[in-house]
Amino acid sequence: MFNLILFGPPGSGKGTQSEKLIEKYGFKHLSTGDILRGEIANRTPLGMEAKSLMDKGQLVPDEVVIGMISSALEANPHVPGFLFDGFPRTTAQAEALDKLLSLKKTEIGAVLFLQVPDEELISRMINRAKTSGRADDADEQVQRRRLDVYLRDTLPVAEHYGKIDKVVEVEGVGSIDEIFRKLTQEIDSRKGV
Ligand code: B4P
Question: Considering the entire predicted model, what is its pTM?
Answer without folding.
Answer: 0.93
